Structure formats: structure tokens, C-alpha cells
User: Which sequence fits this backbone?
């Protein structure tokens, strides 16, 4: 909480000084202030002071970003209305290093106590030699929880471990590794072949209905054309028959209308 308040104070102070400089510069540019007035020793001293203040605020804001202000120097073990019991960070660090040193292949290099929104967190930096990290972390966590609870009656909200160095004598069996790699490559090839086959089947499933639809459309067009041709032939035959019939009916009338030739004396 204190860190956030201090950061806000530095930020607001730097912003105010910067705004003053900007306003003065703009007013001078537009002729509101004569440049000759800055030759006054009082004005020069004022702006030099503002410049120094701005530099100090900026330097403090930058430096404060790299300060671990979350680290606590002491923790409250027990408190009531009449008394309270506290333990310094030195005691906490000494207990951690002393008991971690009893674990073979593990060395404690750094202990930090930080305060979070949920409680006090213990951060431990360790160096490990030829040990399994997960097993080491589990052992150290149980060890430190037991030590702090039995000696101080205190339990941390969380205990974090950071491996700063690891020396391992483990050597892989290259023949086994190569065999596993070969199996993985073959499995990948087989999976690729199966994917390709599945893709072809999907393509066939997609294109086959379209082909069938095209063929069906062509057949329907052919049938419709045949029907049109048959209907045209029928209409032509009907027209031919009607024309013939009409000619037959008109022929007698023509013969009756032919004038008779007079007989010669």
C-alpha cells in the first residue's frame, strides 16, 4: 500500500512540474512573455529549482521501480490486546538456510519474505545437485512448514522455490531415444497417410452428389427435348392432315364453279 501511495506522489509531482514548463514555453512562443524577462536572476533561479525538482522526482520514480518494497522486515507471530510477538526477517532466513542445509544435494542461497493481499509469502532460492526437482520442492516445503510451525508457531500463506542452479549426472540412453524417435516418425507418417485418405474420401463424398445432379439434369433436358420433338411432330402431322382435308373439300367447289363451254352449231 505504501509503495502505491509513494508512486502516486512521485508521478503527480513530476506531472505538475512538466505542465508548468510546457505552459511557460507555449506562452513565450506566442508572445505572452518576452524572452528578455528570462534574463532576470530571480526567474532563472526559479526555473533552475523547478528543473532540479523535476530531475529528482523522475530519478526517484525510476529508482523506486527496482526496489522490492513488498519485502517485509518482520512478521507478527502472535498479538492480542496486551502484547504482540514478532520475528525479524533475519530469524526467518536463518531458520530456512539452517534446515535446508541438512538436505543432501540442496543449498539455500536466498530467502525473501513478501507481503501479498492474501498473506505472507516465503520465496526461497536454491541450488540443486543431482536431485529430482519436484521431489526436492515437496520435501523442502514440508520441512519448512514443520520448522516454522514448531519453532515459531507460524504458518506462511505460500512457500515458493526458485531453482538458481542445477547440476545433474543423468545421461540418456541414446539407443532408446533413437528407437522412440523412429516410432514417433513412423506414427506421424501413418497419421499423415490416414489424413490424406480421409481427405480423398471427403472430396469424393462432396463431388459425387454434384456429379449425380449434373447427370440427372442432363437426362431431364434430353427427355424434355424428346418430348418437345414428339409434340412438334404431332403438331406438324396434324397440320398436314388438316391441310389435306381442306384441299379435298375445296376441290369440288372449284370444279362446280368452272363455266360451261357453248356447243358449236
Assistant:
Amino acid at each position: 500500500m505504501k509503495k502505491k501511495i509513494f508512486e502516486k506522489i512521485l508521478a503527480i509531482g513530476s506531472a505538475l512540474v512538466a505542465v508548468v514548463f510546457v505552459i511557460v514555453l507555449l506562452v513565450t512562443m506566442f508572445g505572452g512573455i518576452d524572452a528578455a524577462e528570462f534574463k532576470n536572476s530571480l526567474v532563472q533561479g526559479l526555473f533552475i529549482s523547478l528543473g532540479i525538482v523535476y530531475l529528482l522526482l523522475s530519478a526517484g520514480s525510476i529508482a523506486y521501480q527496482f526496489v522490492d518494497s513488498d519485502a517485509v522486515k518482520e512478521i507478527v507471530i502472535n498479538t492480542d490486546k496486551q502484547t504482540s510477538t514478532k520475528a525479524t526477517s533475519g530469524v526467518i532466513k536463518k531458520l530456512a538456510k539452517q534446515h535446508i542445509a541438512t538436505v543432501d544435494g540442496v543449498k539455500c542461497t536466498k530467502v525473501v519474505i513478501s507481503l501479498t493481499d492474501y498473506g505472507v509469502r516465503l520465496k526461497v532460492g536454491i541450488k540443486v545437485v543431482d536431485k529430482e526437482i519436484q521431489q526436492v520442492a515437496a520435501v523442502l516445503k514440508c520441512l519448512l512448514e514443520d520448522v516454522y510451525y514448531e519453532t515459531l508457531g507460524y504458518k506462511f500463506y505460500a512457500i515458493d522455490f526458485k531453482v538458481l542452479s542445477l547440476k545433474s549426472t543423468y545421461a540418456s540412453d541414446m539407443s532408446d531415444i533413437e528407437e522412440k524417435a523412429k516410432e514417433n516418425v513412423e506414427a506421424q507418417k501413418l497419421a499423415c497417410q490416414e489424413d490424406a485418405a480421409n481427405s480423398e474420401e471427403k472430396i469424393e463424398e462432396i463431388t459425387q452428389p454434384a456429379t449425380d445432379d449434373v447427370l440427372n439434369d442432363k437426362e431431364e433436358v434430353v427427355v424434355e427435348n424428346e418430348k418437345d420433338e414428339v409434340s412438334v411432330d404431332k403438331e406438324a402431322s396434324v397440320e398436314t392432315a388438316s391441310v389435306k382435308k381442306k384441299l379435298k373439300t375445296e376441290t369440288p367447289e372449284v370444279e362446280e364453279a368452272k363455266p360451261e363451254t357453248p356447243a358449236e352449231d
Summary: The CA atoms of residues 121 and 158 lie 5 Å apart. The helical segments are 2-29, 41-65, 89-100, 133-151, 174-257. The two ends are 155 Å apart (CA to CA). The beta strands are 74-79, 84-88, 106-115, 120-129, 158-167.
